Amino acid sequence: MRFSSNTPFVILGLTRDGKKFRPSDWAERLCGVLSAFGAEKKMKYSRYVSPGHYSDEKAVFVDGQLYEIEPMAYRFVLHFAQDNDLQLIEGSCPIKDKDKDSLI
User: What CATH class has 9-90?
Assistant: First the structure.
């Protein structure tokens, strides 16, 4: 699937044939790659890439603005989904009201 730049999307924890993606903490691991330690010395997920659930499945929500800030990070997350044959839902990303001081 080809997305235009800055398109928000959701990565579902299901392969295209409907199998659950493993390990069970894949979403947190993927988002952890783009996380940073904040001033209070706690890990913070990026406000542009966030783990969660979509239709009762583990998911990663990617805000399309990530492309404008760091195109390589956007492509990394998109290619992760494609390389692992995961289902993508284009144009849907309910990331809102996240910390303004979080890094990419």
Answer: alpha beta
